[in-house]
Specification:
nine-stranded mixed beta sheet, 36% helix, homodimer, 414 residues, 2 domains, five-stranded antiparallel beta sheet, alpha+beta, 16 strands
Amino acid sequence: MPLRINADRLHARLEAMARVGATPAGGVGRTTLSDEDRAGRDLLRSWLEAAGLAVRVDDFGNMTARRPGREDGPPVQLGSHLDSVPRGGRFDGALGVLAALEVVETLNDTNVTTRLPLEVINFTDEEGARFEPAMLGSGAAIGHFPKDYVYARTDARGLRFADELRRIGYQGREADRPRPGAAYLELHIEQGPALEAAGLPVGVVAGIVGITWLEVTVVGQSDHAGPTPMGLRHDALVAAARVIDRIDRLVRQVDERAVATVGRLRIEPDVINIIPGRAVFSVDLRHPDLATLDALVTHLEAIVGSETVASGLEATIDRFWTSEPTPFSPAVVDAVAAAADELELPTMRLWSGAGHDAKYMAEVCPTAMIFVRSQGGVSHCEQEYSTPEDVEAGANVLLGAALRLAGTTEGVDG
Amino acid sequence: MPLRINADRLHARLEAMARVGATPAGGVGRTTLSDEDRAGRDLLRSWLEAAGLAVRVDDFGNMTARRPGREDGPPVQLGSHLDSVPRGGRFDGALGVLAALEVVETLNDTNVTTRLPLEVINFTDEEGARFEPAMLGSGAAIGHFPKDYVYARTDARGLRFADELRRIGYQGREADRPRPGAAYLELHIEQGPALEAAGLPVGVVAGIVGITWLEVTVVGQSDHAGPTPMGLRHDALVAAARVIDRIDRLVRQVDERAVATVGRLRIEPDVINIIPGRAVFSVDLRHPDLATLDALVTHLEAIVGSETVASGLEATIDRFWTSEPTPFSPAVVDAVAAAADELELPTMRLWSGAGHDAKYMAEVCPTAMIFVRSQGGVSHCEQEYSTPEDVEAGANVLLGAALRLAGTTEGVDG
């Protein structure tokens, strides 16, 4: 029988943490370095210390608590984030941190000592909702963002990251940054509907998809809607509409992992009886494979060309940002899958369509994630919800995978 | 040989009128009841009086000047408007009024007396750019708009039509409204590219198309762009894009007189990495035949249904405004065509896609219009331009048609 977490304790702590920054409709508002963030950090620290762990705080506010192993090797790290978007859900981020704490508590309760140390990590500013960009704390910890850059980030009111970090009392030392471990594991709600659609409580995350963002500008000719016959029009919106339709059809033909979204669209002059002379829209393309992502961009260019130039319109495409795919470590992914199997939990492998702290951690150590089914696939809203049973299942997979990676099935026996 | 207008005099007067409210880039700003409008009216009045005509001003500021005929029957009326949009062109409106004056001057020069009287009319506020709605003066003159309604119209600064009419000294008497005549003729620039595309200087206008405006709302589901597989999306913009594409294809299959324009489009939440949950767009449909227009609406409803409901989205369609088609009088249209033939001018018959004072006049007397080719089809901008040759051709057609309708070829002989 695999070891199992104490679900009542985990649910109670999720409930207690949800009261920190609670919003009227059942969500939380715990934006980075706010008073609510401080209160959440203080609560986590008190629980970690009560579990016998010392808490380190680094120069970005990232919190790391180590449970020693039988050997003093690189730790197996279990982390996520306590910050939220302004009216966010109670599970996004907090679940991964509190489940990591629960893993430690369970091992304490059962007197299991792992071979490698375990670390619980709470990363600063995963959401990027107050200080952009997202995943600032984990990115800074691995050296992706320079310290000066991070400290100079400002929020909408002009307050600096460094000043707010000091204000809440969480500016620690560079020496206390989480260092590359033996493995990094992150439990997180799915933020998508795939597990719900498949009827599965837990998913094994094989990587984080590549994302590329483009802006397409179509230039036609504004004219009066009445006197201009269809044959003489250069309607930028009609051309844009055809591109939007064809992008949607294109990605459906690639494979089920390809997604494309036109989320932003502006037409000019945007007047009821004037033919649009200009349409500007974004395209968000995602796929686990960079070559496929690049091929999608090439297809998009061809589609835009055929719907504009051929009809006497002009178009430009600006591919202004790309985040390359992050395949996770096969060994760590397999450990997650094996832990789920041992618990007799049906799962599926899937790729994360959104970014997580695991993206940066994967650059410095073997990494994988576990997703928990999210009702309706919604997140970043107060309605975000995962059932107690699914939360428990996910935390048990985290525990099982951590034990496999920290090398200590024999510990259970001792 | 048909009688011909004095082109030099007409061009000189167009030039002089263009100096009233001239804008730096060669256009005019003569919004209704402004100081510039008053100056334009004063200039017209001076020319009409110099041509021996008495000027009547009605209670809406409409100006009418009669040249007596041999009989005291209902007059043949030649009119348009001197007001413009804020940065408008020098031909839109002014051409029709000054060409009407030129017809009178030409008859004076050649001592022609028509059987029926001729009237030159300058309607107030055709553009509706300062006091909405458009064609306020002609609509009021025929009783379409009640006097209280017209007087209470306010501009963007809250100034009332009645007060501004009094301020510029053009509030006349109800008894001096233009009364239904034997025929109404209006020369106007095309405001569209059809004549230019056909290589013709002048067009015979057979009517004003029907217009119907609709607002379509598509409701899908907002979701994160990353984690939501294509098969689970309810993307309101993709559905809207397919509707926009299909409307465009639909009207091209009807006939060359059908036009459809989606001029306004708003999506929500309009964020790069969020699937649009809502799309709201306008549809402007136009056709000379009301039954065809209604059939287009029925087709549109079917298209919206097939692109939304079938995919699990919802949609509503609000047909909130319709202006029925206005076919002109065949006899008056034929008189225009015959005048052009006599001048050996190649022409085409076309429908006006935009509204004009002729729309209201057609409700009370036999009406037609003459279009002059407009470079690039542009109007309501300072770049609006018609060549002196095309202006001359249009004015000669107006003269010829007026003589036919006022019944007086024998007058030329006498």
